[in-house]
Design a protein that fits this description.
By secondary structure, the chain is mainly α. The protein is built from eight helices and two strands; from the N terminus they run αβααβααααα. The protein has a domain of 101 residues. It has a two-stranded parallel ribbon with strand order 1-2.
């Protein structure tokens, strides 16, 4: 993966800077090299994940009933799709908005200078964070399906859910209100989506 990591890094940077006429800078001789190693490691984990998951699945498979096997397969597929959707949503839509917001403070006597490590590390961290937060509808559905919490109980506690999501968003994002709001909004909408899906299943 290290062989293709420079091309992946360039592709990622093109997405992040999008239409902005900005140049990313590096401030240490080995900064870009270390970044390429990080990307290579991440891509290696992603590439090896299907094999790792298959080995784990083969390990627990004998202990499961047929209905449990189907259920867990469905959960794994849905969770993977939601995680991928969160990462793509973050990198393609959210991060360019954050960069645009940061550039809005540039004036004649204030220049915007972005470090390549800061931007890429922010992309990786926020991508992972959005991937996790996009699991909310699945978690909500499972809590209701397993009778841990009832639909009425969760839906009546929306104000508490708002506070919890805002708190988690504040902990997982950089210390700026824009990142927190951009993480909160889709997460809360996904929570509502999980409630709608669970209610439909319940009515059926």
């Amino acid at each position: 993966m290290f062989i293709i990591s420079p091309k992946v890094l360039n592709f990622l940077i093109k997405i992040l800077v999008s239409d902005n006429n900005i140049t990313l800078n590096y401030f240490a001789p080995l900064e870009v090299f270390v970044l390429q190693i990080k990307l290579a490691l991440l891509m290696s984990i992603i590439l090896a994940f299907p094999y790792i998951a298959k080995q784990l699945w083969n390990f627990i498979l004998p202990a499961l009933y047929e209905n449990e096997r189907k259920f867990i397969k469905t959960i794994i597929i849905l969770s993977s799709l939601l995680f991928a959707a969160g990462v793509i949503f973050c990198i393609c839509l959210i991060l360019p908005l954050i960069i645009n917001f940061g550039m809005s403070f540039a004036k004649d006597n204030i220049n915007a200078m972005f470090g390549v490590s800061n931007i890429v590390n922010l992309a990786l961290w926020l991508g992972f964070t959005f991937g996790l937060m996009f699991q909310i509808p699945l978690v909500t559905h499972l809590l209701i399906k397993w009778d841990i919490l009832s639909y009425d109980s969760i839906s009546s506690k929306r104000p508490y859910v708002v506070v919890i999501i805002l708190t988690v968003a504040a902990l997982l994002t950089p210390p700026d209100i824009v990142s927190q709001v951009l993480l909160f909004l889709p997460t809360y909408l996904l929570f509502e989506l999980g409630l709608v899906f669970s209610k439909r299943k319940k009515d059926v």
